[in-house]
């Protein structure tokens, strides 16, 4: 983690691909080129697992598979599996917000055609494909058999996703850029993991959750957040020595240079809500064996390149667990201006932390500033040296990049100085999220400005 110093938060779906949704193809490589010109070395993405309800990447249909919509048709054409004519699409798919349903209607028949070409070329018997099947036999058969249609086609999709992902990682690594992934603590009730491994989850005889996940009321939502995922049956995980978790993190560590662990406080305690509850206002906190789990992961996998998302109801026990495993926590600078000398102010950040203006759950900095009470606006302007509303986003970027935290991650929306319409997620709101997609030409003039800011940060931090 110490080698990653400054970067961008931008999910793959937000890239300006021409087929309705961002993917792992040419637009991703162009973004790597931009990051290199901007002097940045870390690209943080949201979970890449199959999306669930509301198109949320945090309601994954599998803890192991990748989302098929991330597959690039352009790269399938480059691999000789699609004709160029298959890439032509309506203008409506080439710009604007991510269009999940339209992208699925357009892409899936073409992915099926690519599979048929793959079969015709006898690549199902290729050494590379068989190595992939053998390396992923602990999860891939369950995923493929659980999906409608031909299991071989679903294995092909995951094989090509891995190839495209590894190609992107190699391309980025040559320019000194690493990837930060995101592992949600939960999986969806409709996931293949719950269906195929029901003994690992707290379910009734019909396979429905007996209690569901969420968080109590907070600054984001007065009724709390009712996520609805099933809770874990920890005794079963202990019995098999946390094998499911070890497999999950082994795969994630193989895919990313560092991993943000979503809802890290859940490794100390989790909030349970009745399965029939309408809100998360009433629930119960239960202890979890997070220390035992992390010890197992470290013993089986070695040093853990994790970032602890230690946000929310952070207790001393959460801080002890984070520090005992020497994990960097997170600091959110948008929260720093409601009191004097807040611990979220960059000057107060510990070295072992990662600094963000905000996460995917926060408003953009420009939108956030508009909603601030007057006294918080005054504090922000004083600390950031900001004199004009038009300069708020870049004043925040400069402030964050001066943090002594070992890494600083800036949402791409703030680099582009975008307002609330570009917000990625509104917690507690089930619809309309995860849709922001950037313009294909928006970033080019900004690389030089970001490079100067990143260079100043690099000169300030000690060498790793």
Characterization of this structure:
The chain has 464 residues and is α/β, with parallel strands linked by helices. It has a domain at 185-249 and 264-305. Helices cover 36% and strands 12% of the residues. It has 16 helices and twelve strands. Helix 5 (140-146) crosses helix 6 and helix 9 crosses helix 10.
Question: Topology of this structure?
Answer:
Elements: E1 6-9, H1 26-37, E2 42-44, H2 73-78, H3 100-120, H4 127-135, H5 140-146, H6 151-173, E3 178-183, H7 192-196, E4 211-215, E5 225-230, H8 234-239, H9 243-255, E6 258-261, E7 269-274, E8 284-287, H10 290-301, E9 306-308, H11 316-324, E10 329-332, E11 353-356, H12 365-371, H13 374-384, H14 392-401, E12 407-411, H15 412-415, H16 447-460
Parallel strand pairs: 1-2, 1-12, 2-3, 3-6, 6-9, 10-11, 11-12
Antiparallel strand pairs: 4-5, 4-7, 7-8
Helix pairs in contact: 5-6, 9-10
Q: What are the salient characteristics of this protein?
A:
464 residues, alpha/beta, 8-stranded parallel sheet, globular
- Percent helix, as a range, is 25-40%
Distance between the first and last residues' Cα: 10 Å
Unreliable residue runs: none
> How many DSSP H or I helices?
16
Envelope shape: globular
- Listing every helix as H and every strand as E from the N terminus to the C terminus, the arrangement reads EHEHHHHHEHEEHHEEEHEHEEHHHEHH
The order of strands across the largest sheet is 9-6-3-2-1-12-11-10
Secondary-structure-derived class = alpha/beta
Mean pLDDT: 94
Q: Strand-residue fraction?
A: 5-15%
């Amino acid at each position: 983690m110490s080698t990653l110093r400054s970067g961008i938060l931008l999910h793959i779906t937000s890239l300006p691909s021409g087929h309705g949704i961002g993917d792992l193809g040419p637009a991703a490589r162009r973004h790597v080129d931009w990051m290199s010109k901007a002097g940045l070395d870390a690209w943080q993405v949201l979970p890449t697992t199959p999306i669930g309800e509301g198109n949320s990447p945090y309601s994954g249909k599998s803890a192991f598979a990748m989302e098929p919509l991330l597959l690039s048709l352009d790269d399938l054409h480059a691999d000789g599996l699609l004709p160029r004519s298959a890439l032509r699409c309506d203008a409506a798919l080439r710009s604007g917000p991510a269009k999940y349903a339209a992208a699925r209607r357009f892409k899936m028949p073409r992915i099926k055609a690519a599979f048929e070409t793959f079969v015709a070329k006898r690549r199902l018997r290729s050494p590379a494909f068989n190595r992939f099947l053998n390396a992923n036999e602990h999860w891939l058969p369950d995923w493929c058999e659980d999906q409608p249609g031909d299991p071989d086609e679903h294995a092909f999709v995951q094989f090509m996703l891995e190839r495209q992902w590894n190609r992107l990682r190699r391309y980025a690594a040559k320019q000194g850029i690493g990837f930060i992934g995101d592992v949600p603590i939960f999986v969806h009730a409709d996931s293949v993991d719950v269906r195929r491994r029901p003994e690992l989850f707290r379910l009734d005889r019909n396979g429905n959750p007996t209690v569901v996940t969420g968080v109590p009321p907070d600054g984001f939502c007065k009724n709390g957040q009712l996520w609805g995922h099933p809770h874990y049956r920890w005794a079963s995980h202990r019995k098999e020595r946390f094998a499911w978790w070890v497999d999950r993190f082994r795969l994630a560590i193989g895919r990313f240079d560092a991993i943000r662990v979503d809802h890290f406080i859940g490794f100390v305690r989790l909030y349970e809500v009745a399965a029939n509850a309408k809100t998360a206002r009433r629930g119960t906190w239960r202890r979890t064996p997070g220390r035992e789990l992390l010890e197992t992961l470290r013993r089986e996998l070695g040093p853990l390149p994790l970032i602890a998302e230690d946000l929310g109801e952070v207790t001393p026990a959460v801080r002890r667990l984070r520090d005992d495993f020497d994990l960097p926590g997170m600091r959110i600078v948008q929260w720093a201006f409601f009191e004097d000398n807040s611990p979220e102010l960059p000057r107060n950040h510990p070295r072992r932390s990662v600094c963000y203006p905000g996460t995917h759950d926060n408003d953009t900095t420009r939108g956030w500033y508009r909603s601030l009470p007057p006294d918080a606006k005054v504090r922000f302007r004083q600390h950031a040296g900001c004199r004009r509303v038009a300069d708020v986003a870049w004043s925040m970027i400069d402030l964050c990049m001066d943090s002594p935290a070992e890494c600083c991650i800036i949402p791409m929306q703030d680099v582009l100085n975008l307002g609330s319409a570009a917000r990625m997620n509104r917690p507690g709101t089930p619809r309309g999220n995860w849709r922001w997609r950037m313009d294909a030409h928006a970033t080019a003039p900004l690389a030089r400005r970001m490079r100067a800011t990143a260079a100043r940060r690099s000169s300030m931090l000690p060498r790793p």
